[in-house]
Amino acid sequence: MKEYKVKSEMAPHLIYVLERDKISYQYYTPKGKCYFLFYIDANTHHFKILMEDAYCEKQRHESISNIPVYSDRTIGNREKLERLQRIYKRRGFMRLKKPV
Fold first, then answer.
1. Would you say residue 84 lies in a domain?
2. SS (HEC) of 76-91
3. Label partner for 90 (CA 20 to 30 A): which of 23, 31, 34, 70?
Protein backbone atom coordinates (compact mmCIF):
# COMPACT_ATOMS: atom_id res chain seq x y z
CA MET A 1 0.00 0.00 0.00
CA LYS A 2 1.19 3.48 -0.82
CA GLU A 3 0.78 6.54 1.42
CA TYR A 4 -1.12 9.62 0.19
CA LYS A 5 -1.79 12.92 1.96
CA VAL A 6 -5.40 14.15 1.57
CA LYS A 7 -6.96 17.43 2.76
CA SER A 8 -9.44 16.96 5.60
CA GLU A 9 -12.27 18.43 3.50
CA MET A 10 -11.72 15.78 0.81
CA ALA A 11 -11.33 12.74 3.10
CA PRO A 12 -15.06 11.87 3.42
CA HIS A 13 -15.50 12.07 -0.35
CA LEU A 14 -12.46 9.89 -1.00
CA ILE A 15 -13.73 7.36 1.55
CA TYR A 16 -17.06 7.27 -0.28
CA VAL A 17 -15.31 6.60 -3.62
CA LEU A 18 -13.05 3.91 -2.13
CA GLU A 19 -16.00 2.10 -0.58
CA ARG A 20 -18.13 2.53 -3.71
CA ASP A 21 -15.36 1.00 -5.83
CA LYS A 22 -14.54 -1.67 -3.20
CA ILE A 23 -10.91 -0.59 -2.79
CA SER A 24 -9.25 -1.46 0.50
CA TYR A 25 -7.71 1.40 2.45
CA GLN A 26 -6.56 2.58 5.84
CA TYR A 27 -6.22 6.13 7.08
CA TYR A 28 -5.45 8.26 10.09
CA THR A 29 -5.02 11.92 11.02
CA PRO A 30 -1.60 12.86 12.35
CA LYS A 31 -1.95 14.68 15.68
CA GLY A 32 -2.44 18.43 15.20
CA LYS A 33 -2.57 18.26 11.39
CA CYS A 34 -5.36 19.29 9.02
CA TYR A 35 -4.91 16.40 6.62
CA PHE A 36 -5.37 12.64 6.54
CA LEU A 37 -2.82 10.02 5.55
CA PHE A 38 -4.39 7.31 3.42
CA TYR A 39 -2.83 3.95 2.68
CA ILE A 40 -4.27 2.65 -0.56
CA ASP A 41 -3.26 -0.16 -2.88
CA ALA A 42 -3.07 2.17 -5.90
CA ASN A 43 -0.30 3.70 -7.97
CA THR A 44 -0.05 7.47 -8.42
CA HIS A 45 -2.06 7.48 -11.66
CA HIS A 46 -4.89 5.45 -10.11
CA PHE A 47 -4.87 7.69 -7.03
CA LYS A 48 -5.24 10.75 -9.28
CA ILE A 49 -8.36 9.17 -10.80
CA LEU A 50 -9.73 8.35 -7.33
CA MET A 51 -9.21 11.97 -6.24
CA GLU A 52 -10.91 13.19 -9.41
CA ASP A 53 -13.90 11.02 -8.49
CA ALA A 54 -13.76 12.40 -4.93
CA TYR A 55 -13.97 15.96 -6.32
CA CYS A 56 -17.00 14.84 -8.34
CA GLU A 57 -18.63 13.54 -5.15
CA LYS A 58 -17.83 16.78 -3.34
CA GLN A 59 -19.53 18.82 -6.08
CA ARG A 60 -22.50 16.41 -6.12
CA HIS A 61 -22.99 16.83 -2.37
CA GLU A 62 -22.71 20.62 -2.66
CA SER A 63 -25.51 20.85 -5.23
CA ILE A 64 -29.13 21.06 -4.13
CA SER A 65 -30.30 18.65 -6.84
CA ASN A 66 -27.76 15.91 -5.93
CA ILE A 67 -27.29 15.20 -9.66
CA PRO A 68 -24.23 13.00 -10.27
CA VAL A 69 -21.07 14.83 -11.35
CA TYR A 70 -18.61 13.09 -13.69
CA SER A 71 -15.15 14.03 -14.92
CA ASP A 72 -14.26 14.11 -18.61
CA ARG A 73 -12.28 10.92 -18.01
CA THR A 74 -15.38 9.14 -16.64
CA ILE A 75 -17.60 10.47 -19.43
CA GLY A 76 -15.13 9.04 -21.95
CA ASN A 77 -15.10 5.62 -20.24
CA ARG A 78 -18.38 4.03 -21.26
CA GLU A 79 -18.10 1.05 -18.91
CA LYS A 80 -17.44 3.22 -15.85
CA LEU A 81 -20.12 5.73 -16.85
CA GLU A 82 -22.75 3.01 -17.19
CA ARG A 83 -21.71 1.45 -13.85
CA LEU A 84 -22.08 4.80 -12.08
CA GLN A 85 -25.40 5.49 -13.79
CA ARG A 86 -26.67 2.17 -12.40
CA ILE A 87 -25.39 3.05 -8.91
CA TYR A 88 -27.04 6.50 -8.92
CA LYS A 89 -30.11 5.30 -10.87
CA ARG A 90 -29.85 8.40 -13.09
CA ARG A 91 -28.73 8.89 -16.64
CA GLY A 92 -28.40 12.67 -16.37
CA PHE A 93 -25.24 14.22 -14.98
CA MET A 94 -23.19 17.38 -14.65
CA ARG A 95 -19.58 17.79 -15.79
CA LEU A 96 -16.90 18.26 -13.12
CA LYS A 97 -15.80 21.86 -12.63
CA LYS A 98 -12.04 21.60 -12.21
CA PRO A 99 -10.89 22.46 -8.69
CA VAL A 100 -8.88 25.68 -8.56
1. yes
2. CCHHHHHHHHHHHCCC
3. 23
| Full residue range of the structural domain in which residue 12 is found | 2-95
For 35, list phi and psi in degrees, rounded to 5: -145, 165
54-64 b/e (C-beta count within 10 Å ≥ 16 → b): bbbbbbbeeee
Is the per-residue pLDDT at 18 higher than 70?
yes
Q: How confident is the model at residue 55 (pLDDT cuts 50, 70, 90)?
A: very high
Q: 36-52 pLDDT, tens per residue?
A: 999 999 999 999 999 99
Angle between helices 11-20 and 44-62 (to 10 degrees): 110
26 part of a folded domain: yes
